[in-house]
Amino acid sequence: MRDQLAKIRAEALAAFQGAETSGGLEALRVKYLGKKGELTGLLKQMGRLSPEERPQMGQLANEVRAALERALEESSKKLEAAALELRLRAEAVDVTIPGRPVSMGHQHPMNIALEELKDIFIGMGFTVMDGPEVELAELNFDRLNAEEGHPSRDWSDTFYFDEDSRVMLRSQTSPMQVRAMDTMPLPIRIVAPGRVYRKDEVDATHSPMFHQVEGMVIDKGVTMADLKGTLSAVAEKLFGQGTVTRFRPHHFPFTEPSCEMDVQCHKCGGAGCPTCKGEGWIELLGAGMVHPRVLEMSGIDPEVYSGWAFGMGLERTALRRFKIDDMRLIFENDVRFLEQF
Ligand code: PHE
User: Fold this and answer.
1) Contact 264 CB / ligand 1 (< 6 Å)
2) Closest ligand 1 atom number to CA of residue 286
3) What local confidence, expressed as pLDDT, does residue 341 receive?
4) Ligand 1 atom closest to Cα of 173?
5) Angstrom distance (rounded) from CA 280 to CA 298
6) CB distance 276 to ligand 1 below 6 Å
7) Does the Cβ of 310 fall within 6 Å of ligand 1?
8) 291, 145 contact by CB (below 8 A)
9) Closest CA to ligand 1's atom 7
C-alpha cells in the first residue's frame, strides 16, 4: 500500500503540472481526489491492514492528500495567471498611436464682427436688445411713420403671413426702436442686432434674408452732431484708426433729416474698383434724427426729447471689417473660407 500511495502521488503531481486548461485540471482533481477517485479508492482498502499498520498508512495517506491539494492549487493559480496574461495581451491598447485630429468649430466672420460691434457699443453705454423676427406691420411700418400705401409695404417686397397684411417677417430691425420706446425708461441707448427679410432674388449683393444692427439714442438735447460723432467713432474702432467716413443726405419715413453713412473702400482707398463698383465708397448704414411724429406716437414729447437712430447692414460691415470682396462667401459656409478669420 505504501508503494501504491507513492505511485499515485508521483502520477498525480506530474499530471497536475502538465494540465493545460482549467477544465483539464478539474478532470484530474476528480480522477485523483474525487469521491470515486484513486486516493479514496485506496483508502477504502485500509480495513485489510493490521491494526498497527493502519494509523501509519492513515497518516501517510493524509500527507499525500495534502501534497496533492497543494499541487492542485498551485497549478490552478498558474493556469489562471496564464489565461489573464493572454487576455491582457489580446485586449491591449497601444496608447502611443497618434489620435485622429478632431476638427474644431469656428466663429463665423459675421459673428466676430457682431461681437466686436456689441463690445464697442456696450463700451459707450448702450444696451443690447433682442426682438422677434415675426413682427406686426403696425410696428414695422405704422409706428415708424410709413403709412398705408408706402412702397415698402407692397406684397412684392414683404413676406406677409395673412391676407390683411398685419403679420410679417420684419423687413428691417427698426421696429426695435418702437419696442424700445414702449418698454424702456428714458433716456434710451440701445442696439438691436437680428435677421430681416425681403423678397429679393439672390445675387452678388442681395439675399432674401440678411442682418441688420439697429441703434437708437433718445435723450434731452441730442443732435445730429452726436449721430455723426458716435458713428464715426464706431467705424474707427471697428475698421481701424484713420477710417474715412462720409454722410450723404437720404430719406427714411421715420427720421428727419436722414442720411446714409459710407466708409471709404478698403480695396482701392477711394479711387474706385470692382469691390465698390467704381464708387470709392461702401454704403454701411442708414441713419437720421428720429422723426417727431415717431416720438409722439410712442408718447414722447418731441419738444423735450430728441434722438437719433441708425440701421447698419451686418453683412457689409463684416465684408469691410475682414476685407472680403464677395458677399456670397459669407453665406456659402465653405470651411476653407471660414477658417481664415
Ligand atoms: N431701417 C432702415 C433700412 O432698413 C435703416 C435705418 C434705420 C435708417 C434707422 C434710419 C434710421 O434701410
Assistant:
1) no
2) 8
3) 86
4) 1
5) 39
6) no
7) yes
8) yes
9) 311
Report the candidate in 190, 250, 249 with the shortest Cα–Cα distance to residue 218.
190
Cis ω before 253 (30° cut-off from 0): no
Q: Is 172 in the pocket of ligand 1 (CB under 6 A)?
A: yes
Q: What is the pLDDT of residue 115?
A: 96
Give the span between the Cα atoms of 77 and 286, in whole angstroms. Answer: 86
Catalogue the long-range contacts made by 270-279 (C-beta closer than 8 Å, 24 or more residues apart).
270/244, 274/325, 275/325
Q: How is residue 276 written as a grid cell?
A: 465698390
pTM confidence score? 0.71
Buried b (16+ CB within 10 A) or exposed e, 141-170: bbbbbbeeeeeebeeeebbeeeeeeeebbb
C-alpha cell at 256: 428727419
Reading the chain (341 residues) residue by residue, the pLDDT tens digits are 788 888 888 888 888 888 888 888 888 888 888 888 888 887 888 888 888 888 888 888 888 888 888 988 999 999 899 889 999 999 998 889 998 988 877 889 999 999 999 999 999 999 999 999 999 999 999 999 998 888 889 999 999 999 999 999 999 999 999 999 999 999 999 999 999 999 998 877 788 999 999 999 999 999 999 999 999 999 999 999 999 999 999 999 999 999 999 999 878 888 988 878 899 998 999 999 999 999 999 999 999 999 999 999 999 899 888 988 788 888 888 888 888 88
pLDDT the model gives residue 18: 86
